[in-house]
Design brief:
Structural class: mainly beta
Helix content: under 10%
Length: 127
Amino acid sequence: QVHLAESGGGLAQAGGSLRLSCASSGRTFSGSGMGWFRRAPGKERTFVAAIAWSGGSKYYSDSVKGRFTISRDTAKSTVYLQMNDLKPEDTAVYSCAAEMYGAPIRNYSDSFYYDYWGQGTQVTVSS
């Protein structure tokens, strides 16, 4: 069993920054990637960013490209999301997800690619 725990959410002003963390515990991480998704109020969950665990290739949605940066610490089995130049439309519950069985990383933007999910952390951006 894998447990994912997010932290770092909170309130920020437009133009500000927040850094989210997602720590994996339980099994030794052996999958192909981890990602971040978000769900805004009244909307469906959408892909934000993903990172390949081996090699560190990074993928972003168009809405956050150039503002958000995903990174990983393999020794700590932790993935981070640095969010800069935040906008009110970034307000959402952010959840991290992990693929644990080696599925092709090419499906990184599809929620069905991931096997485990965290509970989520609220990010609120005020204008």
